Amino acid sequence: MNSDADNIVGLYRRHAAAWLRQRGRDLTERKWLERFVALLPAKPKVLDIGCGPGEPIARYLLETGCAVTGIDAAPEMIDTAKGYFPNATWLVSDMRSLTLNATFDGLLAWNSFFHLSPEDQRRMFPVFRRHAASGAALMFTSGPSFGEAIGSFEGEALYHASLDAAEYRQLLDDSGFDVVDHVVEDPACGRLTVWLGRLRNAASPASVSS
């Protein structure tokens, strides 16, 4: 694996406090979170994958009535989340080896999944499926096209990677998810590329592409 990808967890451990300061409570992704929550049943269970300190995503989910389980590989992030939101469930876990023996109505990997190498991203789709309840919603962010990109955070290399859209669609389909919506570099959401899917069941509509 790319060494910069290997360093992601350590980077967030070292700079957890700085990340929280810079991230703040601004909810630029509100419209996507609203769409995600709209697909969930009443009193849903949501798995926040790569939850960070719980601000502001988990806060929003909790305020809308979701029972949140957050996982993050950085213990410092989980400790902060526990302090902010003691009524949620917070676990130190690497998403790549996640096995909770539980299913959820919603799965969210917002600005976390795209730190994995391409091969690890491919391996995540069975993990998503294994933790998805019937009709579960799945939302994650990716890059706009296949490739790797190295940003910077607190003077250290910050790794990102993406598959191409066709491969994401195939992986979703193979795992039983229909694409509800997909927007490349959404200008209303910080130019993030967003995928929103739903696990197929007998009552679900056909896949919608955009």
From TrEMBL:
Q: Where is the Methyltransferase domain?
A: 46-133
The record's Gene Ontology biological-process terms are: methylation
Q: Name one GO molecular function term.
A: methyltransferase activity
Please provide the record's keywords in A-Z order.
Answer: Methyltransferase, Transferase
**This protein's name:** Methyltransferase type 12
Q: Which Gene3D superfamilies match?
A: Vaccinia Virus protein VP39
Q: Which InterPro entries match?
A: Methyltransf_25, SAM-dependent_MTases_sf
Q: Which CDD domains does the annotation name?
A: AdoMet_MTases (cd02440)
